[in-house]
Amino acid sequence: MLFLLAPRKYAIKNRLHRLKPGDGVKTAFLGLLGLGFWAFMFGISFRVLTYFRTIEGLGDLLAIRLLSMILVVFFSVLVFSNIVTALSTFYLSGELEILHATPIHGEDIYRSKFVETLVDSSWMVLIYGLPVFIAYGVVFKAAAGYYVGLALTVVPFLIIPAGIGIIVTMLLVNAFPARRAKDILVLLGLLFFMAMYILLRLLQPEKLVDPDTFPTLVQYLTAMRGPVSPLLPSFWAAKSLSPLLRGNGGDALFYLLMLWSTALALIVIGEWVCMKIYYRGWSRSQEGRKAPLSRSRAADLFFTLVSSPFRGRLRAIVLKDVKIFFRNTSQWSQLFLLVALIVVYLYSFKLLPLERAAMPSFFLQNLISFLNLGMVGFVVSAVAVRFVFPAVSLEGESFWIIRSSPLSLKQFLWAKFLSSLLPLVILAGILIVISNIFLRVTPFMMTLSVMTVIMMTFGITALGVGLGSVFPRFRYENVAQIPTGFGGIIYMLIAMLFIGTVIILEAWPVYRIFTAQTFGRHIPDSGWVAIVMSFALVVVINLLAVLLPMHVGLRRLREPDS
Known about the structure:
about 550 residues; single chain; mainly alpha; 3 domains
């Protein structure tokens, strides 16, 4: 098995030892951004947990309950991520044809692909989760045994969803028609978001901010339990860590053994399933499939309408990108996930009982609306990293056609920018306008929110196209691998930094104007000068976020080795 993983090891080793000029600076920059992100996650977790522990009698219960909810979310995300990743590693990888033609045992292929699936689908959750778990240890002043237990808990907690995801993927590939293997992503996405939505509604988080919902402490504690099943691995993980946080062993060893026994059992069961059905499913998945959607008259009319705002060479690029998008099932199927995300996001605002909050409702409504700017920016960035960032890389090995055509690289990049901008602006507009309607914000806050979100969307789109050109990946086995690489991490970190900067710059002037309108206070001329300068700086930063990435991306594509 180890020799099958050697190519990945040597690829990483060669990348580290054969750095190009400027790669060292990029690596150092990524390291600093990563440390900053970890510090941010740790700081937020530390503040929240510290506040919880100040609540006498309920503080520790709230903190442990939060840990349980985090583990449930992580486990759900890991299962879905492993299913999607297993589809790529076990059935869509380009190297599989060579591997199956060699005398390598099927068990070795399964084990190596199991490790690849585990690493590719779990590293992001691990990065997000470790600062939170470390913050728990610091706040609870846990002994060294907690950190040892954390390491022993995390490993099987990652293996279990990997085993489940691989087994489910093999069963689905054998159940579905071979020519529709990629269409499984549609079903998986819908099922995942349905499960997450049901879980969210069972938790009923809006009741936790309603003081009239729980007349007694017993009812409150009962609601805090939520849909926590003792059969879930997330429950075992929480039960393994919570006694160690409190400084006593308790049942930690029992639940830790439950995690490890289940993880090892799933590895064995997965290998048995692989030997029975994997090769048959892989053979069927190699058959071709028709593309009736992109050849129908309705599709031609749709493509014509979408590309009608553009002219000349720009229209040709946009038309090509739209057709390729809808021919690729793994691309357009994610629109279902996006619709589900929008519905859940907006519905959560409708359920907020703001009129029963402790502070004045009008103040809380506009405060949440302002903070919602960051959330909308994050959602748009998450969508952009999946659809906009890979835009240049999707040209693949046919990128030489663009280089040799009469279309300049500058026109090519701006065509990618404009074709990606409109969908993101529509998405951001829907999220911010409808959520503000539910919040019943003031006209000033509505206008400011819409203008700020649209400006940020311009910057987020340009960052996606520009950084996608700086870190192109023209050779890939699956589209989903492009945003999860080095460039995708850089893009998300810079996008979060950009959004945070805009929010921070607008915080003081918005507060000053809002309080003046609410309480009838007068803003002096010096205050207006500072407010205008703050908003002007926001505009400048948004312009830089559009122009700089596009300029840097253009320079990168013009290099001979691109």
